[in-house]
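Researcher: I'm preparing a figure for a lab meeting and need a structural model of a single chain. I don't have an experimental structure, so a prediction will have to do for now. The sequence is pasted below. Please return the structure as tokens so I can convert it later.
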Amino acid sequence: MRFKLILPALVFAYLLCFMASGAEPAADLTMWYDEPAHLWTEALPVGNGRLGAMIFGGVAEDRLQLNEDTIWAGGPYDPANPNALKVIPEARKLIFEGKYREATQLLDKQAMSIPVRQMPYQTLGDLRIKFTLDGDAKDYRRELNLDTATARTQFKSGDITYTREIFASHPDQVIVIRLTADKPGRISFSASFRTPHRPSKTEAQNGDLTLSGTSGTAEGIAGRINFNARLRAIADGGTVKATEDALSVDGASSVTLLLSAGTNYVNWHDLGGDPVARASGPLDQAAKKPYGQLLADHVADYQKLFRRVAINLQGTENRVGSYFSSKPTNQRLKPFLKQGDPQLAEMYYQFGRYLLISSSRPGEQPANLQGLWNDSMSPPWGSKYTVNINTEMNYWPAEE
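Model: Understood. Here is the structure written out token by token.
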């Protein structure tokens, strides 16, 4: 992908800034907040084009809402109305006669697809992690670094500082969750899957926690997308135990959680894939790498795309640590019109590029109406592809 400015408003912005290919960001591109997300729309997104997560950053319990880009309701079907061919000439005749209402009624009844509505994109479910802590959180911060595509939550509980780093790796095709504490042996938690899909099943397999299920039915089309998600813990010290309900870690000094998922989707008419193999293969390979290598490979792969464009609005050369970036991102929105905040405009522009990179990679499904992220079985407008304008809008920042 190559990114360029193509909209009139951004062309104007170009006149006020310097754009450089392959350059490091001119300012801090970290979105940050001083409390956990309470709503799905407040959570922070990560994605590798195929797998996505919305991270809430809870303290005693964290939630990662999960997506895999081929989990859609229904299955392959032919929507063509068999009556359409014969009624179109009649509808055309009615139109020429000025009988527009009659033509519309005829087409609605005899020519529209069966069913009329398309299948919706659906959530995979949630990963919930319940932690054992020593007290309430202090010095809380959650953030998303757009330059490294890494989310981070940090806080102090008792006399211990806990840090969670999360990213979705395109090279390794897994979501990586790194849990650390500044004192040894203090990480204990229980992780479990939840999903609205029925039927579904969680179980322990070779030390992994797994979730399997089938996509939902919609518009009378039975769900036929089978999926499998797997979670593996690699702990430094402590004990790891998998049951049919949860993956538990007790007394570890650090833990790397690897999450993968796969479906039986091959293409629009072929559901012959093996979801278990597609989930377990990347997981087994990623588990062979130390965390530092997983992170380095992820950042290098992502920055090849993200650092193709740097934007520097006037007066923001030394914004890192400034009045603006020292405030939580949500607190910068209201003062924006009165005070101005050029760095927030830079971040907004780069956040759009981040979302496209994170929800669209070659060989995977295109970005849908919500990119990659959806927490619903029946989202607004189906979170589907609408090519009258919305799909095109997704790719305005990109040139193939």
